[in-house]
Amino acid sequence: MPTPEYPMARESGCPFAPAPTVRTMTREEPAGKVRIWDGSEPWFITRHADQRALLNDPRISIDEHRDGYPHMTRGRAESAPHIPPMITNTDPPEHTRLRRTVNGPFMVKRVEALRPRIQQVIDSLVDDLLAGPNPADLVQAVGLPVPTLVITQILGVPYEDHAFFQTNSSKTISHESTPQEAREAGQALGQYLGALLGQKMKDPAEDVLSEMGARVAAGEMGYEEAVHMATAILIAGHETSASMISLGTLALLQNPDQLALLRDRSDDPKFVANAVEELLRYLTIVHTGIRRIANADIELHGVTIKDGDGIVFDLSGANWDETEFPGADRLDLTRPARQHHAFGYGVHQCLGQSLARVELQVAYSTLYRRIPTLALAVPFEEVPFAMEGVAYGLTSLPVTWSA
Amino acid sequence: MSLKVEFDEPKCVAAGQCVMVAPDLFDQRDEDGVAIVLDDSPSPDQYDEAREAAAVCPAAAIRLVEG
User: Fold this and answer.
1) CA A10, CA A28: separation in Å to the nearest integer?
2) Residue of B33, B55, B58 lying closest to A103 (CB–CB)
3) Residue ranges of the 4Fe-4S ferredoxin-type domain (chain B) (predicted)?
4) Element (H, E) at A386
5) Which of A90, A98, A161, A230 falls between 20 and 30 A from A346, CA-CA?
6) Which residue in chain B is spatially nearest to A349 when comparing CA positions?
7) What is the mean pLDDT of residues A284-303?
8) Domains and CATH numbers, chain A
9) Domain spanning B3-66 has what CATH number?
10) What ranges do the domains of chain B cover?
11) Distance from C-alpha of A54 to C-alpha of A96, rounded to nearest angstrom
């Protein structure tokens, strides 16, 4: 069999399922290879147990400056040498130090303290939705505004600039952008946030940019590093949560028994929390694989991953691995799903995961309770998917309800 | 048999997963979110929580030792 190209297209008609080749390789070829955009052939690891072991193995590195690193896109490969050391490209112990300097705002108790504000944001978006035209587009009405409102509040970025952010962060991460477009969009975001950081250093407020500004002033963090970090927080928290809200709704509308269960138990925080984990597992929206490079020879399933070899970990493979999640192709909100890899695994696991969880818990427990008759306004086959980004999502989700 | 929680602090990346699944056993310190063990000798009814905390820790910084 020739080495499969990666990322792989999903089967039409099964937009939630990983590409069939991913699932076959999970079963039959746990240490296979794929061919990526630059023609190189990194190792391809899809089993849940292998990902758990390797993503915490000190012989695996995220140093994207090293030759042979399997970059996600041409744009990423070209920008990598210019990115200063930060949490997304350093290994422990430096990574540990850096992560601890940016982690404060994403601590469980600080995120929990935001829950009432997130509830207000979502309630008022649902109010507007119900007062507006019916049918409506749930992506525009709820999916996109929720994370934008929340993350811009946390960073201290004015909401008026949200169109600018949505356009530029999409361009930065889309596979359809040319390297130049991606670079320009990243620079535009960086310049804006740099100026805002300077302003916050002079006139601090209660937000993350002001906190970063204080760290820059104290010499704990470089100015450039702070700007890169703020840009990364904005992009990472934006499209991903939006996609989870709209895709989760679509998946639930396709599984009416599960939707009914969630609606009936939306006042049970434990049930809702597990439902979020299962939707994270089932959808695994980050679908272009997380990338590493080996720093030493590693034996795995009878092959040797050599020092300097690239490795791609497909998260949906692990989350649909039948050994870990029997009946993985079934959305089952009651299954124990907490061990999924939707946020990755290892020390680089998503920084904003606690915030994402609260956003999703509030969104899913509010939407269907307040709009119990929510239904698709077009046939499922006509819902437009956006498959080209680092995370997949929906271009729009036409929904209707009875008044 | 009893279970004891061992926490390897230098490994901790402050993801807070332990706090989410076992809030009676773990907390995060205010300045940087690094985990704090509130109780390293969980009672038997807390064993499941303790095991889950060890399992979800992305940095494998939590270990349970049977004593």
Assistant:
1) 19
2) B33
3) 3-31
4) strand A385-386
5) A230
6) B58
7) 97
8) 20-400 (1.10.630.10)
9) 3.30.70.20
10) 3-66
11) 18
